[in-house]
Design a protein that fits this description.
43% of the residues lie in helices and 24% in strands. With 304 residues, it is of the alpha+beta class. The protein is globular, with a radius of gyration of 24 Å.
């Protein structure tokens, strides 16, 4: 069945109506509990009402899961997949599938934390450059002296992997100084066993933006010529220096820790503005194309 805008709106309305129905019931139950218990115990009344609210939230989440997924799926098929297909070739898009955690872990560049979630996996080609991208959310678990456990987000954004026809014989990492705690401090390359060394370039501005690690300083400086460094610095500035660049073999791994979960539908409480939503999705897609265009990856910079 082909999804059109009306299908998305119908799915949104069905989801919203079920949410309203369940929250109305939960609200009535909380109100009745409050009225019945307040005359006997002031704090107890609020406790029972709060307890009913928490339980109700769990019930609503599970009771509306089917409609919520139907709305999310219809939205992503119509707005995300369709607009991705308009720009990229060879598209394979799965909104409920993400980037494999082991893939990021095996790169030796990323700490994948205690809780790892990923979705919106897209594989495609743009201007002759093959890529894969997905939203990623990484959290670490912390337990205090009282046994209370909290989860802290150390990465929320995207990972993008671009491939090149030439394999590098070394590993190079550029870690933006505002990238955050999810960058793994390099030691030995897990693939080659060679030690990574910390480097500085002749550009003070570049050194202030990035921590630079490489297996081979000579080859790293061969790659980081002034023109390419200028492009990297420009796009890093665009994204507030929350970017990681990792070069390994024929792969460029880019992490963008922008605190956003992309390609998500709006709240179901009001009708979707099709034009505004299309513009929002287009801006989220430009995050992918920006890295290819601004770094001129389609020009095969790494081919002799």
């Amino acid at each position: 069945m082909e999804i059109d805008f009306n299908s998305v709106e119908k799915a949104r309305i069905a989801y919203h109506e079920k949410l309203v129905h369940y929250w109305l019931v939960i609200g009535i139950i909380c109100g009745v509990l409050l009225i019945l218990t307040l005359p006997f115990t002031f704090m107890g009344g609020f406790f029972f009402a709060f307890f009913a609210f928490v339980v109700g939230t769990i019930i609503v989440t599970f009771a509306t899961r089917k409609e919520g997924e139907a709305y999310r799926s219809a939205y992503k098929t119509y707005f995300i997949e369709k607009n991705l297909a308009n720009i990229f070739t060879g598209l394979k898009y799965q909104h409920s599938v993400g980037l494999n955690r082991d893939l990021l872990r095996a790169s030796g560049m990323v700490y994948t934390g205690d809780v790892y979630n990923s979705n919106d996996l897209a594989q495609a080609n743009y201007k002759g450059v093959d890529f894969v991208q997905a939203d990623v959310h990484i959290q670490t678990e912390h337990t205090d002296s009282d046994g209370n456990t909290t989860y802290v987000t150390i990465f929320k954004g995207r990972y993008m992997i671009f491939e090149f026809p030439k394999k590098f014989s070394f590993k190079l990492e550029l870690i933006g100084k505002r990238f955050g705690a999810s960058a793994r401090v390099p030691g030995k390359n897990q693939t080659t066993g060679r030690k990574m060394e910390k480097l500085k370039t002749e550009s003070g501005d570049f050194n202030n933006i990035f921590k630079i690690y490489a297996e081979d300083g000579f080859e790293a400086f061969y790659l980081l010529d002034p023109a390419f460094m200028e492009k990297i610095q420009k796009i890093s500035d665009t994204y507030k220096n929350r970017v990681l660049f990792g070069f390994l073999n024929n792969t460029l791994l880019i992490g963008l820790n922008n605190g956003k979960d992309s390609f998500e539908p709006p709240r179901s409480s009001k009708p979707i503005d099709e034009k505004a939503e299309t513009e929002k999705v287009s801006s989220e897609i430009r995050v992918i194309t920006d890295f290819v265009d601004m770094l001129n990856l389609d020009k095969k910079l790494f081919v002799n």
